[in-house]
Amino acid sequence: MAFEIDLSGKTAVITGSNSGIGLGVAIQLAKAGADIVLNSFSDTPEDHALAASVADQTGVNVRYIQADMSKADQCRALIEKAGACDILVNNAGIQHVAGIPDFPVEKWDAIIAINMSSAFHTSAIAMPMMRAAGWGRIVNIASAHGLTASPYKSAYVAAKHGVVGLTKVTALETAKDPITCNAICPGYVLTPIVEKQIPDTMKEYNMSKEDVIENILLARQPSKEFATVEQVGGNVVFLCSDAAEQVTGTTISVDGGWTAL
Asked: With a threshold of 0.70, does the pTM exceed it?
């Protein structure tokens, strides 16, 4: 049997998708034919222009809906405002680095809310919609830090481990439905945020760009190559395909061998 991926007629909601991984995922889903709902906490002309640009590039319907993923009611309202949610990609996330005794309480609360709790709130509204439609895909963007740990990233590691656990529970609760739920666990992905870190890190360690990438940023990534947003997006598209119909409750690592160590 040959599997072709055609997501025409499906609506995909991607949280935290006006840049980086989220935008990359959105573009790959759009190229596969899905209509797209972009999201972030801001609501600027640039956000809506981005939606129009993706629509022009891909020929699908693209909307932008503002919602703050740190707020439970706004997470739920995002899905309701979308009107349909055949594919839900929980991608929104933030980071803060500090030792546990010095970790600001407000940063802990924000990271847990945005990186983990938002996926619960969006899924809670999307699952009944998927059941009513007779088809659904939930993809949670976790992290290599959902499977392993690093010091000084307590909130992020806790949240991403929680996302992996939520993925498994969601998969079990939808196992008898034509719905799947999986997590993608990227390592270091070359996003605009990561690119901006490189010059500062070069100065901090007095290293060349190549040494910073290989020995600092990619120290735990055996391939010594960044993953790309297109690769993460491609894996999301695969999980929405008929070939992945029996793939549920699991994680896909896009980490250059990080979690194999």
From this structure: yes
- Sketch out the chain's domains with CATH numbers: 11-188+227-254 (3.40.50.720), 190-224 (no CATH)
pLDDT, averaged in runs of 10, over the chain (261 residues): 90 98 98 98 98 98 98 98 98 96 98 98 98 98 98 97 99 98 98 92 96 96 98 98 98 98 92
Closest CA to 230 of 43, 38, 21: 21
Q: Respond yes or no: is residue 188 known to be catalytic.
A: no
Instruction: Return d(Cα 179, Cα 173) in angstroms, integer.
Output: 10
- Which of 64, 152, 156, 188 is an active site residue? 156
